[in-house]
Design the sequence.
């Protein structure tokens, strides 16, 4: 494929060159030595009427739809049709807007190229369209394919673009001035959009129609099917907006007739309603036809989490809003502000990870106080209103499938009333899922198990202080005992909270706890450990010894047998030797050593 660059100088002499699309894409990455495109853009900033300027300062015109040659009279003659139509999105006021349009254009597989146009305020999208025997087409036939392709492409791309497409008269001679874009998009493997040479008429809804179908002995031709498909897509995109929610895993829609309507999932009932409205509009379509389009990759993806975080990028005012939020929680824990800061970064980072991440956010803030001190409200207010759908405090730990599904779809899970989670669940299922980076679940009505990135982080609340049942797993909990009610009188500054988090992650601040911090957390958590009867009986008969002169080395099994003889087996249940050994290892100041057969502890027997 070659496109044509045309320059008419001040004497109206025609200069023509043909370049491959690849070389053209490379050409537009830099300006000419004398800055031709940049000068024209500066002129555009002063006046949007460039006709007189272009006459005095001729620049190249780009013809992407066909390759041209000159005849003997210096006229352009089409050599071959490239099967390309041009869409223009104009009136873009910032690089962020042009980038957004370019990124949206990449969603569809028909996009050959997308780049910033000649004035800098537009994006030009080159779309591949299919035409039979493109080299043997006349210019009039190529024009018809351009018009049909432009009409269909406009309907498809408008559904995914954030700005309206400029209405233009499509022609094989459509052209634009030389663009300039340091980072153009190009897809050499772009698919061709199937079109016929007849342009698609605009369909208006009709109150009642009689839909004629071919007799049983007649089959619809490929052209008929293609036309009906284009009518269907045009009808739906004119009346509705569609997007695929990548977090929830389904398509959402909005009816353009209702300004107040929020985005809603496209469920089976909605699909049937859309089909009936399509048929009432005079289009012969079935449920499967609508379903194929609405659930296809032609619907633009929408990432509610990524979009929100991107909006906060580069907005941070330099103040520490995350630790300021932590200070609304009154506590004597000297590490709380730093712990909360690291955990908050870990939560935001967790929203951005993929299935290929090695670890999930393993830290869990644990708020401990009496009832009525605003613990749950504080947890709820951690998410901004735009992401409030991602909070849940209603997790049923007994339903493992529900837990895994919410870890994939939710953003923050509050383990409310943490003290009600059984010890065996803490030490088993909960300990395992907190470390996961991805979850394997089957969608509702799905046929196979799929791997989804885990998005949710955990936070917990409890009314009891002795709640940590797993000594080895206590490093995952950031226990903070409140000294008074949490101040929820002023809502958090969400923009600055998440702008700070994005900036910190961009600067590679730690969003996880290192070895020293982990030891600090485990030491702090000793006071919040669940104490069994064996704990209490141990301190009735023993205490940690300072040195070997003061005490003796005894194995966990020997100490356990001694206690059984003193108080009986029934009072020590359900503790066994293994769990008793883990309990001893968690006692502050109790020294231990490894021998050939077991672990021994340095204890001093108390005189009773």
Sequence:
């Amino acid at each position: 494929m070659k496109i044509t660059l045309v320059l008419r100088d001040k004497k109206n002499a025609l200069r023509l060159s043909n370049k491959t699309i690849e070389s053209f894409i490379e050409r537009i990455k830099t300006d000419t030595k004398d800055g031709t495109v940049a000068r024209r853009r500066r002129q555009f900033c002063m006046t949007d009427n460039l006709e007189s300027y272009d006459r005095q300062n001729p620049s190249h015109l780009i013809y992407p739809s066909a390759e041209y040659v000159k005849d003997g009279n210096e006229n352009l003659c089409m050599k071959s049709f490239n099967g390309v139509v041009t869409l223009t999105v104009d009136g873009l006021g910032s690089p962020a807007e042009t980038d957004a349009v370019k990124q949206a254009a990449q969603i569809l597989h028909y996009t050959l190229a997308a780049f910033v146009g000649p004035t800098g305020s537009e994006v030009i999208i080159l779309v591949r369209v299919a035409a039979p025997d493109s080299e043997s087409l006349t210019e009039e036939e190529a024009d018809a394919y351009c018009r049909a392709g432009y009409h269909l492409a406009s309907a498809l791309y408008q559904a995914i673009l954030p700005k309206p497409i400029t209405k233009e008269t499509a022609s094989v001679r459509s052209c634009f001035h030389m663009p300039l874009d340091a980072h153009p998009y190009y897809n050499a493997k772009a698919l061709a959009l199937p079109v016929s040479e007849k342009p698609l008429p605009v369909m208006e809804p009709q109150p009642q129609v009689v839909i004629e179908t071919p007799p049983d002995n007649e089959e619809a031709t490929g052209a008929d099917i293609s036309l009906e498909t284009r009518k269907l897509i045009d009808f739906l995109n004119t009346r509705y907006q569609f997007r695929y929610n990548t977090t929830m895993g389904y398509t959402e829609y909005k009816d353009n007739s209702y300004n107040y309507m929020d985005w809603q999932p496209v469920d089976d009932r909605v699909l049937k309603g859309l089909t009936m409205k399509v048929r009432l509009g005079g289009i012969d379509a079935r449920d499967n036809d609508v379903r194929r389009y609405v659930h296809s990759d032609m619907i633009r993806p929408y990432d509610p989490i990524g979009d929100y975080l991107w909006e906060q990028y580069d907005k941070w005012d330099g103040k520490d809003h995350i630790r300021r939020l932590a200070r609304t929680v009154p506590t004597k824990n000297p590490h709380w502000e730093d712990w909360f800061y690291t955990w908050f970064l870990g939560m935001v980072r967790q929203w951005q990870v993929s299935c290929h991440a090695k670890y999930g956010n393993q830290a869990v803030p644990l708020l401990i106080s009496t009832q009525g001190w605003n613990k749950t409200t504080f947890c709820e207010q951690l998410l901004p209103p735009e992401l409030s759908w991602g909070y849940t405090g209603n997790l049923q730990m007994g339903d493992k499938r529900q837990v895994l599904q919410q870890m994939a779809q939710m953003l923050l899970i509050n383990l409310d009333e943490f003290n009600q989670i059984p010890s065996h669940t803490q030490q088993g299922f909960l300990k395992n899922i907190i470390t996961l980076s991805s979850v394997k679940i089957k969608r509702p009505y799905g046929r196979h198990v799929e791997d989804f990135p885990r998005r949710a982080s955990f936070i917990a609340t409890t009314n009891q202080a002795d709640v940590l049942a797993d000594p080895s797993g206590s490093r995952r909990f950031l226990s903070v005992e409140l000294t008074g009610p949490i101040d929820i009188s002023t809502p958090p500054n969400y923009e600055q909270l998440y702008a700070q988090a994005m900036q910190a992650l961009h600067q590679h601040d730690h969003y996880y706890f290192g070895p020293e911090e982990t030891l600090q957390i485990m030491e702090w958590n000793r006071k919040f450990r669940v104490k069994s009867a064996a704990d209490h009986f141990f301190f009735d008969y023993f205490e940690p010894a300072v040195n070997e002169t003061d005490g003796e080395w005894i194995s966990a099994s020997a100490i356990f047998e001694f206690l059984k003889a003193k108080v009986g087996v029934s009072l020590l249940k359900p503790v066994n030797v293994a769990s008793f050994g883990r309990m001893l290892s968690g006692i502050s100041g109790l020294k231990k050593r490894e021998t050939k057969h077991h672990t021994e502890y340095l204890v001093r027997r108390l005189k009773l």
About this structure: The longest strand covers residues 123-130. The CA atoms of residues 417 and 534 lie 25 Å apart. The chain has 20 helices and 26 strands.
